[in-house]
Design a protein that fits this description.
2 copies of one chain form a homodimer. Chain A is α/β, with parallel strands linked by helices. Chain A has helices spanning 14-26, 43-49, 53-58, 65-69, 92-100, 121-125, 144-159, 175-191, 203-213, 218-231; strands at 5-9, 32-35, 60-62, 74-78, 89-90, 108-112, 129-131. In chain A, strands 3-2-1-6-4-7-5 form a 7-stranded parallel β-sheet. In chain A, α1 (14-26) runs parallel beside α7 (144-159) and α5 (92-100) packs across α7. The first copy, chain A, is elongated. The model of chain A has no long low-confidence stretch (mean pLDDT 92). The A-B interface holds A 19, 22-23, 25-28, 48, 50-52, 82, 85-86, 89-91, 132-136, 138-143, 145-146, 149-150, 153, 156-157, 160, 162-163, 165-169 and B 19, 22-23, 25-28, 48, 50-52, 82, 85-86, 89-91, 132-136, 138-143, 145-146, 149-150, 153, 156-157, 160, 162-163, 165-169.
């Protein structure tokens, strides 16, 4: 995975720097640059970094945005407000897809602004592209480290090979196995007097719909066979 | 948007409860239930909630998971480890899509486990479905409130109508307008002696490729026309 640089511009709270480092590491990112932080280093940054102290320790602290991005080929700035002069802008998923398409040796930076004021207009004009996280219009104010987490999550999915979810541990049952179960169930319920042979109603249909919908595996069919075998009345009920 | 319940099971750090409330509100969620928190209420929860104090204040604190989910129709548990008996499991994007397909009156809960231990096996067996956030195998340990943020972000996108990004403020230039610009540029550069009429080389082709690739709008074409007009030499350079 190409390492995308995360740049925090003048963060106020050291906890957010640590939280951003942790968010990055969970998504395989490690290149953190902090521009002119108010309070850093700080024990709160370390505490919030948790198992990502290595990312925090390797972070560069620089004096201004220029020093953070001068060597970068594509610079993205996070933005919540719409601008007087519209800039190319996209949601995190699309930005991540665009980054995944950049040449392998492209250095890419994503800028995150101050907790209270975001990025300045000057800083946003330094960017090739702007990024906006979709959020509720009533309260679109994500915490800084949370914003890093969401963007890093999309980057991870764009870059990482999608790891298939673990497979099921048993083979699905065949239609024949399931039909044999239904026949077994039906005869058991008839023997128990629960189903009237002459007027069966919809019970079997509803049981079919339930058990077909759930796509049983072989073991589940065997368990149900065992259950119904164990519950089969020893002798047929007295004839009426 | 259907309100999905977020359930935090035995969180240790009050800051995470506040952080989760804020994460929820940024994505339009408000139904927060906290099961047997270690330290809550707490000023740290309020501080991290920031502008989402209303969500935090409305949160229910209950003694056990049963009380949190008994009225729910579909319960999802977050999980990082794979289980001995595989359970239906999906990534947040797919879970959000499945939730969006539930009937409108379905009450849905998503359980988030303890910071150190996650959900117990018993709690995971209470769930219809499991959810796993894609993360780096080296350090897949998202902070609790960060996990809530990622899941809420996917829910917001599944439920909210996608708000189109703000449009461009000017119409794109037509091919005719762009050709007129190129003719103007070429004659200006020829007058300035920068282009040799008899041996023009590739300069114009490269300028064409640059300016066509960028899809200029009308104003940009006008600005460039103005620039080249202003820079046209007063008189042709002395003939060689």
């Amino acid at each position: 995975m190409s390492d995308v640089r995360i740049v925090l511009v003048e963060p106020s709270h050291p906890g957010n720097i640590g939280g951003a480092a942790r968010a990055m590491k969970t998504m395989g990112l490690s290149d953190l640059v902090v521009v002119n932080p108010k309070r850093y280093p700080d024990p709160q940054a370390d505490w919030r970094a948790a198992g990502a102290l290595d990312v925090l320790d390797a972070a560069r602290v620089v004096a201004d945005v220029d020093a953070a991005i001068d060597d970068c080929h594509w610079v993205v700035g996070t933005s919540t407000r719409s601008r007087k002069i519209p800039w190319p802008i996209a949601y995190p998923k699309e930005i991540a897809a665009q980054i995944a398409e950049q040449p392998g040796d492209a250095r890419i930076a994503i800028l995150f602004g101050r907790e209270d004021n975001g990025l300045s207009n000057d800083e946003l004009r330094r960017c090739h592209y702007h990024l906006q996280i979709p959020a509720s219009p009533e309260y679109p104010s994500l915490n800084l480290a949370m914003a890093v987490q969401v963007v890093a999550y999309e980057l991870y999915q764009a870059f990482a090979e999608v790891i298939p979810m673990p497979g099921w541990d048993r083979s699905l049952a065949t239609a024949g196995e399931v039909e044999a179960l239904f026949a077994h169930v039906q005869s058991t319920l008839e023997q128990a007097g629960f189903l009237d042979v002459d007027n069966p109603g919809q019970t079997m249909t509803r049981l079919r719909r339930l058990l077909l919908r759930v796509q049983m595996d072989e073991t589940e069919v065997q368990i149900l066979r065992g259950v119904f075998k164990a519950l089969t009345p020893a002798s047929p009920p007295a004839a009426e």
